Amino acid sequence: MAIIAEISIEADEFLLGQIIAEYPGLSVEIERVVPAAKRVMPYIWGYGSDLQSFEIAMSESPNVRSITALDEYDDRALYKIEWEDPAEQLITGIAQTDATILEAHSDEEWLFRIRFEEHAGLARFNQYCTEHDIAYRLNRVSSLADIDANGDDYGLTEAQYEAVSLAVERGYFKVPREVEYEELADELGVSVQAFSERVRRGVDKVLQAVFLRPDSRNS
């Protein structure tokens, strides 16, 4: 039975996290992982005002074979990164256990939602992390049946649910707006950027769940 594991991991536990941490004005989402010719190529979205410096640093890294900007808009870009094998051990471990990254992004720490084909895949991933001294925290494990039966959470993480529900409760989405992100971020004790990213990702999940359901037009 396929399962989805939600894990949290500090940036210094894996190479990509370490590089991103050097750019506090930059946030990143890992789009997908593709094992090819025994190398792992993650596709990532970068957000922020320092993308050029990030590209230069990545291209100069001895651990990076290549970095290519596939799409660029104002303050965001989609990159394809090919690592020198086996530099990025965390991403390699995910690929080696035939897992799929459903969501991965940087905040105050990194959050990953990973789908494994079975519980044994998660066990192999845990063994891999132990062997490579990668420490992470397992937040939740759900089966696809559990998610279908409790679909009202729309796949939001606890942090995303907390941010979106607070924004709704305080009137952020009302017209006229009754509160700003700065006040809401202070209430949760996080940065404005972190709060805004949680709301953006959370709202996107809710909208996709509502409007992209097969029966959404008939309900």
Outline: globular
Question: How many alpha or pi helices?
Answer: 8
- SSE string: EHEEHEEHEEHEHHHH
From the N-terminal CA to the C-terminal CA, the straight-line distance is 30 Å
Main β-sheet, in a few words? Answer: 4 strands, antiparallel
| Largest sheet, spatial ordering of strands | 6-7-1-8
Helix content: 25-40%
Proportion in β-strands: 25-35%
- The low-pLDDT segments are none
Give a brief rundown of this model.
The protein is an alpha+beta fold. It has helices spanning about 15-20, 50-60, 90-95, 120-130, 145-150, 160-170, 180-190, 190-210; strands at about 5-10, 25-35, 40-45, 65-75, 75-85, 100-105, 110-115, 135-145. It is globular, with a radius of gyration of 18 Å.
Q: What can you see in these coordinates?
A:
By secondary structure, this protein is an alpha+beta fold. It has eight helices and eight strands; from the N terminus they run βαββαββαββαβαααα. The protein has a four-stranded antiparallel sheet. A four-stranded antiparallel sheet has the order 2-3-5-4. α6 packs across α8 and α7 packs across α8 (192-211). The two termini are 30 Å apart. The mean pLDDT is 82.
